[in-house]
Amino acid sequence: MNNAHLAAVRKWYPEALTSIDTVDRLLDTIEEHLDLKPHQLMHADSMCCDDVNAIQYPPRALEMLGPFHMGGLDGYPFAGITGMNAFAHHVPENGAVIIFYAPHIGITKEGTIGEVGRIGQSANSACCGAAKGALGKLSAGQIIAGNVTSLDFQMNTIEQIFLNQKDRILNAGNQIFEATEVMYEAIDERIEVLVKHTAYPCRYVILAGGIFINGDRDMGSFCQYKKFEAIEVASGKRHSLMEKYYR
């Protein structure tokens, strides 16, 4: 990664950092303000199952326990309440659960959004492919309201999310950017519902939500946070850590 690569990403996401810097700041902020070490954190992520995310996963995240994977296509938490409850009961009692959730999107070194150059391929490919596929069907008027099948449940769910925001997405200056914003909001809303219906035998629930940005094969990955909050389990009080994170 060089400064030109970060600049290409920041055309779209002005506060983005490399995923390595993101995790470093995340863990440093938690340690400084919540007095918790990485080994006291049970980590879950809700990210797309795209292989590029596994390749570009930041190594320092592995200092935490986990991760427990909650996400399916484009990061929606398809593991649901059963997954959240299972993960919640793996946490150290004097520690915290941390849930990182994000849709992902590709940005090439030239700054093209919605594409990425993958290892071993000469041409760029869609990223997120599921989001671009759903967007294509939305543009063509091919999504039927309420049509969610067992054969393609995850993709159909994304299609319904986009259909509910059809005008917003199709009237946007950049449709794949806006569709990713819509996807983040849907994921955030569902995570909040799952957290509300889960009991956590620990001190804190930490929510870190944002956009995960895949670069070309030689760029690495990036992230821009939209939410970084600590919830005190005993009292339910919330504390935003965003200002401390960006300090």
TrEMBL record:
Alphabetized Pfam families for the sequence: LCIB_C_CA (PF18599)
Stretches assigned to the Limiting CO2-inducible protein B/C beta carbonyic anhydrase domain: 19-231
Protein name: Limiting CO2-inducible protein B/C beta carbonyic anhydrase domain-containing protein
